[in-house]
Amino acid sequence: MIQILQSPITRHELQKVADQLYGDLVKAVVDVDREMMAIGGELHADEESLLLEEGSAQRSLWGINLYPDIEGDTMVEFDSMINVRPSQGNRSRTVEDAATRARILEIVKKVVTE
């Protein structure tokens, strides 16, 4: 079940979400403008769709994978098909802009707690 997180979730709770689908990872979509994140979808596109329905702007949404058992910034993998956006200068599945990656990490650190 997809959840939109606007308040913190613990790593333990995040691991429970991972256990439901992939075991070691949780797909997530981060809205860098609204400082929120959707988790729990089978595909990033599912989470993206929900955030769009809730008023997010497409240009603000970025797909990532979270690995709850990994510490630090390396718990975040910037890889998703929804990130391919030539119109925004992002031509690959990764988030190419360093400032956007930093913003995503900042939001993940606020939302995912120990």
Please give the number of β-strands.
Answer: 7
What's the number of structural domains?
A: 1
Rg over C-alpha atoms, rounded to the nearest angstrom: 13 Å
Shape: globular
Along the chain, the helix and strand elements come as EEHEEHEEHE
- Given the helix and strand composition, which structural class is it? alpha+beta
Low-confidence stretches: none
Assembly type of the shown chains?
single chain
- Tell me about the biggest sheet? 5 strands, antiparallel
What's the number of helices?
Answer: 3
Give an overview of the whole structure.
The chain contains three helices and seven strands, in the order E-E-H-E-E-H-E-E-H-E. The model has no long low-confidence stretch (mean pLDDT 96). With 114 residues, the chain is of the alpha+beta class. Helices cover 31% and strands 22% of the residues. The strands form two sheets. It has a five-stranded antiparallel β-sheet with strand order 1-4-3-5-6, with helices on both faces. A two-stranded parallel sheet has the order 2-7. It starts with a strand and ends with a strand. The chain has one domain. Strand 3 and strand 4 form a beta hairpin.
